[in-house]
Amino acid sequence: IVLGSISASDYGIIRGPVKSTMAPATPTPIAIELHNLGHEFLEGKPVLKGVSSEIKAGTHAVINGQNGSGKSTLGKILTGQ
Q: Mean of the pLDDT values across residues 60-81?
């Protein structure tokens, strides 16, 4: 999972029509989509803050981090617990 994003402005602006000789890619459905997810057990003490990611169907994702960083909490949110 990659958290964060890159905008088109990071690479400059393309002006005018763009032609491609490549066939359009077959879209892969997104199985899980997170946008700015946050969670706190005690008010003002976030366990998760600003988590955003997409996990496409048929792929694997690894969630790692230090003890207490919110891995289990994220897992519980994703499984509806």
A: 86
